[in-house]
Design goal:
This protein has one domain. The protein contains 5 helices and no strands. It has helices spanning about 5-25, 30-35, 45-70, 75-100, 105-135. Helix 1 (about 5-25) crosses helix 3 (about 45-70) and helix 1 runs antiparallel to helix 5. The longest helix has 28 residues, at about 105-135.
Length: about 140
């Protein structure tokens, strides 16, 4: 494993964590809680698991960007990350909507996919930048 992929993963994970908190708690927290997500399925956040999830997402971006996509700039990282975030958000949200009763509307899942696109875009920008600077 190349060291630059590990640095990009760490930087991306921290970015996803900070920007995710800003988006999901500070900016869109009230909007999302008012969209019909059943409170009985919510729990206090486990920050270690959230961080590990962000490490996995950042590693996915760093690996794909470095190995297959040759992404190494802020702009191309944002675009690649946004596309990945949107598609992963739609994938998981639509399947969750189709298989659970967490929400009676598809709207929260679509909103989450758009937020994920921007979140992963910002994370991807940082991953791309770090790959470019350390590669």
């Amino acid at each position: 494993m190349k060291l630059n992929v590990l640095w990009a993963t760490l930087a991306g994970a921290v970015t996803l964590m900070v920007v995710g908190f800003l988006f999901y708690v500070v900016i869109f927290g009230d909007l999302l809680s008012d969209m019909g997500i059943s409170e009985e399925y919510m729990k206090d956040p486990d920050m270690i698991m959230i961080f590990l999830g962000n490490v996995a997402g950042a590693f996915l971006m760093a690996y794909v960007f470095n190995k297959w996509a040759s992404i190494s700039t802020l702009k191309t990282g944002f675009i690649g990350g946004a596309i990945m975030g949107l598609l992963i958000g739609l994938y998981s949200g639509l399947i969750q909507f189709g298989t659970t009763v967490i929400s009676d509307s598809v709207t929260p899942y679509l909103v989450d996919a758009v937020i994920s696109a921007v979140l992963w875009g910002v994370g991807g920008a940082i991953v791309g930048l770090v790959l470019g600077k350390t590669g």
